[in-house]
Amino acid sequence: MSDCIFCKIVNKQIDTKLISETDDYVAFNDISPQAPVHALVIPKKHFSTLNDIDDVELMGKLLNGAKETAEKLGVKDNYRTIINTGAEAGQAVFHIHIHILAGRPLLWPPG
Ligand code: 5GP
Ligand code: ZN
Fold first, then answer.
1. Does 91 sit in the ligand 1 pocket, CB within 6 Å?
2. Boundaries of domain holding 89
3. Domain CATH number, residue 43
4. Structure pTM?
5. N or C: which end of the chain has fewer CB within 10 A?
6. Residue 42 binned pLDDT confidence (cut-offs 50, 70, 90)
7. Does residue 5 line the site of ligand 1, with CB under 6 A?
8. Rounded to an integer, what distance in angstroms lies between the CA atom of residue 33 and that of residue 6?
9. Which ligand is nearest to the CA of 95?
């Protein structure tokens, strides 16, 4: 989508250092980290929310991407994955993404 900030990252219209890239997703650091490690894994194809993805295989690849990203960042033993769906749930960017947070104790439940 032309006005989507994450599509612009995928299309290299916004210069962002990638942690990893496959045919299906890219991972990169969050611009406003909420923990010492805060990365995002996003599909290359635009879907606004989790509810809009109709490709179960891609869902699996994204979750696997989160796991591999955590491993690559050296936090595989303690990390949190989050998908916010909808503004009230905290979603601000409507291109689905998995947050990976780590590097400090994380409270449960979140606020
Ligand atoms: P949400 O609130 O939608 O679940 O998360 C969106 C996340 O994207 C936020 O944590 C925000 O800091 C991050 N973000 C927004 N714009 C950019 C950007 O241009 N670059 C990067 N790296 N992260 C962004
Ligand atoms: Zn997009």
1. yes
2. 5-102
3. 3.30.428.10
4. 0.98
5. C
6. very high
7. yes
8. 16
9. 2
Query: Which mutation among 69, 82, 93 tests ligand 1's pocket best, with the greatest number of atoms within 8 A of CB?
Result: 93
pLDDT in tens, 49-77: 999 999 999 999 999 999 999 999 999 99
Atom 24 of ligand 1: nearest residue by CA position: 31
4 lines ligand 1 (CB under 6 A): no
Does 67 map to a domain? yes
pLDDT > 90 in the chain, percent: 96
Please report whether residue 53 resides in a domain: yes
Which residues belong to the active site? 97
Counted domains in the chain: 1
* 18, part of any domain: yes
